[in-house]
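Quick one, tokens below. Sequence please?
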């Protein structure tokens, strides 16, 4: 089994089902969305490894969603394969220019789709999300789900852990409360932005006096994780 998750975005249920069957037989896990709104929520919540995105969708088009995803640092690295009935050269170029990694014209065979998908995933390269992260004496191990501070175990809740993991893997950039909610709590969870402040305070307390300064308040924006004063 590949362990990879593929998001299928197409407004035609039979096409989604046909693709899902082919991908599941090839060992992939599948998510489905019938429009860009569902797709974006699923992307924020589940972080798929690749998106199969139909060009023509009701409301916001697939090409517009691709453009939006590639402009956002949090989703820019997710590979996108455009699916479309449009075969003209200029449409292919437009799809690739907004950042799509490949382009398959309908109708296509399931075997071709799986082969192209594997090729794009190989090009995207493995993402090592299980490597330990260390900043000074602060150590986070995603495999054991443990945080140690100067070789002593740190006690913190699951939300504080997820916040810290996100911060340590996205250092030196300011994030709004809304962005943190999307990344740590998930796009479908309705939580007030001020809830972020509560968990930031808890995280700082868990880090203690020697490391709480790493989680910095950015006036007018939100928060960032930084070793710089």
């Amino acid at each position: 089994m590949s362990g990879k998750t593929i998001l299928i975005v197409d407004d035609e249920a039979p096409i989604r089902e046909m693709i899902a069957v082919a991908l599941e037989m090839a060992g992939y896990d599948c998510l489905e969305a019938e429009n860009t709104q569902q797709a974006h929520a699923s992307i924020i919540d589940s972080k798929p490894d690749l998106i199969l995105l139909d060009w023509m969708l009701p409301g916001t088009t697939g090409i517009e969603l691709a453009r939006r995803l590639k402009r956002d640092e949090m989703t820019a690295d997710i590979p996108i394969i455009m699916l479309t009935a449009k075969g003209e050269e200029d449409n292919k170029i437009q799809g690739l220019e907004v950042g799509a990694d490949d382009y398959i014209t309908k109708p296509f065979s399931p075997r071709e789709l799986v082969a192209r998908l594997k090729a794009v995933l190989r090009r995207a390269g493995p993402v090592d999300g299980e490597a330990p992260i260390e900043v000074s004496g602060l150590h986070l191990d995603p495999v054991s789900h443990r945080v140690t501070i100067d070789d002593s175990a740190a006690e913190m809740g699951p939300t504080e852990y997820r916040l810290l993991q996100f911060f340590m893997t996205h250092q030196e950039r300011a994030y709004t409360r809304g962005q943190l909610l999307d990344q740590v709590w998930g796009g479908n969870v309705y939580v007030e932005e001020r809830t972020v402040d509560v968990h930031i305070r808890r995280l700082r307390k868990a880090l203690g006096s020697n490391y709480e300064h790493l989680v910095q308040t950015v006036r007018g924006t939100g928060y960032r994780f930084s070793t710089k004063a």
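The helical segments are 13-25, 36-46, 62-71, 89-97, 110-124, 158-169, 177-185, 194-207. The longest strand covers residues 5-9.
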